[in-house]
Specification:
The chain has 369 residues and is of the alpha/beta class. It contains 15 helices and 15 strands.
Length: 369
């Protein structure tokens, strides 16, 4: 996690901080490497299938800084030769030479925070880039990367259904292998929460969602996760690991991690504020909290992830990832099926279209006593 941005967006509740003055890039990478070294006893020998530089805006950092971290990671862990290595990028930070350098050091996937191709919508979201920079970023990405994702948002302040549709058409025309389309939500502790903008009503935003799903399907994209659409073979491996309740190590300010062992599942959180994180991590204390997921919490935690996948999950995966027998959740699965939220056979559990639309209600079943 690289926590700095050019500007804090009014809808963002992530651990991101406006870059005021010079960012302590070298010291922060020192801390990331120290963090990884401190985590080695927990992950020693585990193969690494993917690496994700998230933020914030990781593309603010110089290629040399990310190369230094990747070199350390390759020296410490068995990173698979075909590992998916993703960099989140903001269109306001795109430079041809810089992104060619990112590709040369082994980053093979970009996730670009376009949000919209409409200049007015970008202003309403407080983005630092405009529509011209959005198009230029996509052009540079396509020139340097075979695989990239475009992050889009809909149900934006003052947005019409046609404007939302234009954004999807632009993404398809750009040849994006992967599209993530998120409904704007007003989160606590954000500027938009304090000063709510006028956004489309629920019926209008639901119509936008249905329309964009139909448009992407017609263009050959598979809707494989709640907000994710991919051309064949271009699903995000890193994100699929989350949804399948796989393990991941989080390093960086405020980063979350989840690691499974024979008899427990451990969740960790790093110190949140960048300065605090650097000071504590370089002193040998990267982790702020560490706690085991209780047996009672495991079914919900698993379902909260796996039921986001439109194809659901194989029944064997539940036991593989939780060490619990499927019988532990059979009554709740039966309840979800009776309500029309899932369909299942002996091999697979899948959310129905109703289950996908009302995911929170579906998940609530696995929270009930």
């Amino acid at each position: 996690h690289i926590p700095w941005c050019l500007r804090k967006c009014p809808y963002c509740d992530f651990n991101s901080h406006e870059a005021k003055g010079e960012v302590p890039e070298h010291r922060y990478v020192d801390a990331l490497i120290a963090d990884l070294e401190q985590a080695l006893p927990l992950v020693w020998g585990r193969p690494v299938h993917s690496i994700f530089f998230g933020g914030g805006t990781p593309s603010l950092f110089a290629p040399e800084s990310l190369d230094r971290f990747l070199s350390a990671a390759r020296a410490l862990l068995p990173i698979e030769p075909d590992a998916e290595i993703t960099l989140e990028a903001n269109p306001g930070t795109f430079e041809q030479a810089k992104f060619a350098a990112f590709r040369a050091l082994g980053i093979n996937r970009l996730s670009i925070g376009i949000q919209s191709f409409d200049g007015g919508m970008l202003k309403s979201l407080g983005r630092v880039h405009d529509d011209r920079e959005a198009h230029r970023a996509v052009e540079i990405a396509a020139r340097n990367f075979d695989n990239f994702n475009l992050d889009l948002m809909y149900a934006l302040p003052g947005q019409s259904p046609e404007q939302a549709a234009v954004d999807i058409r632009e993404a398809v025309a750009a040849g994006a292998p992967h599209v993530s389309a998120y409904h704007l939500t007003i989160e606590p502790n954000t500027y938009f929460h304090r000063y709510p903008p006028a956004v489309p009503d629920d019926d209008t935003s639901a119509g936008m969602q249905i329309a964009l799903e139909e448009m992407l399907a017609a263009a050959g994209y598979e809707h494989y996760e709640t907000s994710a659409f991919a051309r064949p073979g271009r699903q995000a491996r890193h994100n699929l690991n989350y949804w399948r309740f796989g393990d991941y190590l989080g390093v960086g300010a405020g980063a979350h991690g989840k690691l499974s062992f024979r008899d427990r599942v451990l969740r960790q959180v790093r110190h949140r504020h960048p300065r605090d994180y650097m000071d504590r991590t370089l002193a040998g204390d990267a982790v702020q909290t560490a706690q085991d997921v209780t047996v009672a919490e495991l079914p919900f935690e698993f379902m909260m992830n796996a039921l986001r996948l439109t194809g659901g999950f194989p029944t064997t995966l539940f036991t593989e990832r939780t060490s619990l027998p499927l019988s532990a959740v059979l009554p709740r699965l039966a309840d979800a099926e009776r309500r029309g939220f899932i369909e299942r056979d002996g091999m697979q559990v899948r959310p129905t279209e109703t289950g996908q639309r009302f995911l929170n209600e579906l998940l609530q079943i696995f929270l009930e006593d």
